[in-house]
Amino acid sequence: MPRWFWLGVGIGLLFVAAAGAVKIALDARAESLPVYMTIPDWPFTDQEGHTFWLGQTRGKVVVLGMIYTHCPDVCPLITARMREIQEQVAAEGLSDQVFFVTITFDPERDTPEVLRRYARARKVDFTNWAFLTGDPSTIRHLTEVLGIYTERVYVIHGTPAAATPEASSNEVTYFINHTDRIFLVDRQGRVRALLPGSRTELKDAMEKIRRLVRERSGS
Asked: What CATH fold (topology level) applies to the domain 34-214?
């Protein structure tokens, strides 16, 4: 064969290789989850009464939810969804790479002991799951960072009402209306997926978690 023939073949192979590399890069980009925000490295208190900095979870994929233990509706479901995910993570051998964090909206009532009882009643495995409370202003700032809506609704003698200084503490209780959401956080502390909280589907959550686990920490 003449030299020009082999030269043409070589150039053609280079184009094929380049096209393949571009396709791989585009496919990888298409699979990448968006970046919404970064979780601040703020201090909280875990269910054992120990200081827990959110930055301690760097290097792991984090499943994060916010609840309060007096919640009568979605909060137990959020915790149940996260428990299902924790069980599946363990079944796939990923427990050392995925950490679970639950933070209360209600630090006034949700002490470490209350959170510990709440979690134990729901058969939570504390090996890779922390339940956190903390300073009310820190929790409020975190809800703002995450874009979570909260509203405290007071109830007096079973009737919704504005809280009044005249009402005794025994007569007044409150509930917290809030956004129903679970967050997936990457190894660098960036929120990469917003799951529909109590309505989260295990298959969808695990597909996203696997993708985050596969990502390199420096990506």
From this structure: Glutaredoxin (3.40.30)
